[in-house]
Specification:
Helix 3 packs parallel to helix 5 and helix 4 crosses helix 5. This protein has two domains: 116 residues, no CATH class; 79 residues. The chain is built from eleven helices and no strands. The radius of gyration is 25 Å and the shape is elongated. It starts with 8 loop residues before the first helix and ends with a helix. 23% of the residues are buried. Helices cover 72% and strands 0% of the residues. It is mainly α.
């Protein structure tokens, strides 16, 4: 069997499009093992103040997988960027996001339809990351506050927060609709009292 040459971008793309697992796995391994890509990935990671020894591996692997996905969904355009340019652009995006979020799952989320390998941070800003993190902190703080109201109130307030109506809460809790109304009043008072007594939680939720 003739050995395929994966030094050419066209051959790598063709191997992925073939759907042959053996071929595209060899092609992707060829990319990940590329010393040129490894050096470029480490450089990008260091530029973002991250430790290349601990972060380069997963970032390069995941950036290469994003490239694979982009070929599969037909969003990759070789006329716009070479494979190495695309992968390093993705790595730059991931390093940028990870530096600010300290969350690998957040860093790995890249919308291929919006990603521009020439300007990988063009549709992205630290503000958008900060907004996502702020929302997560608010949800976590609210969950803590609701839990502090007691087991019964926690269930009722959680359902209320999920936009369940009184009759639905009654059905799920075994209470009558009138009892649900009374319980909501009591639970809201407990929640308000907890927030008054816990400035750090209140500030995370309300911002003041």
């Amino acid at each position: 069997m003739k050995k395929e040459n994966y030094d050419k971008d066209e051959n790598i793309i063709e191997a992925i499009k073939s759907g042959d697992a053996r071929r595209y796995n060899i092609a992707l391994k060829h990319l990940i093992d590329s010393n040129t890509l490894k050096r470029s990935a480490r450089k990008v990671i260091m530029e973002h103040g991250l430790d290349p020894d601990s972060e380069a591996g997963w970032i390069l692997n995941d950036a290469t997988f994003v490239f694979y996905e982009s070929v599969v969904v037909k969003s990759f355009d070789l006329a716009k960027a070479s494979i190495s340019t695309f992968i390093i652009a993705v790595a730059k995006r991931m390093a940028y996001t990870y530096k600010r979020s300290q969350n690998r799952d957040v860093a790995k989320k890249i919308k291929l339809t919006e990603f521009d390998p020439i300007n990988p941070l063009n549709d992205f800003s630290s503000h958008s990351i900060e907004k996502q993190l702020e929302q997560k902190e608010k949800k976590r703080a609210m969950k803590t506050a609701i839990k502090a109201t007691g087991e019964r109130c926690e269930k009722i307030l959680s359902l209320y927060a999920q936009k369940y109506k009184g009759a639905e809460i009654a059905s799920l809790t075994g209470l009558t609709p009138n009892k649900v109304k009374e319980a909501l009043r009591t639970c809201k008072k407990r929640l308000h009292k907890y927030l008054i007594e816990n400035d750090n939680i209140r500030i995370l939720i309300r911002g003041k």
